[in-house]
Amino acid sequence: MFARSTLFLTALAAFATPALAGTSINVSHADLNLATEAGARQLERRIEAAANRVCGVTGQQDLKAMMNARACKRAALAGALPKLQVAVAEARATQQLATATAGAAGVGGR
Q1: Cβ of 23: how many Cβ atoms within 10 Å?
Q2: H helices within the chain, ranges in order?
């Protein structure tokens, strides 16, 4: 199984300002244990912060810019969610396999 340590978040051209359209950033999770709820929640927070950065969500914009930034953020999060789910599922499957392998080795090693 290929372990990835980053997720990509992209600002969609339809919602981002021209300067940000198509911009993507990496969100690292190499330091997180995604098999735990705490690790998965921390990655969700990082992804949300990255979406704010890539989409220019600042709260200091006029109404139209704020609406576009929020729409960009929603779209970016929708694109990142499946990647987050896959990363968490892979981490949990790897942990379960390691636990099962260790248990089997312990039973057979007696």
Answers
A1: 19
A2: 37-55, 63-108
Number of Cβ within a 10 Å radius of residue 53: 16
* Model pTM score: 0.74
Q: Please give the structure tokens belonging to residue 97.
A: 């396999």
Task: For residue 23, give the nearest of 88, 59, 73 by alpha carbon.
Answer: 73
CA–CA gap between residue 2 and residue 23 (Å, rounded): 25
Q: Please name the helix (run of DSSP H) or strand (run of DSSP E) that holds residue 7, with its range, or none.
A: strand 6-10
pLDDT, tens only, 1-26: 334 566 666 655 444 455 555 677 88
Cross-strand partners of 27: 7
3-state DSSP assignment of residue 89 = helix
User: In this structure, which amino acid lies at residue 52?
Assistant: N
Identify the CA nearest to 6 among candidates 41, 35, 46, 37. Answer: 46
pLDDT at 11: 56
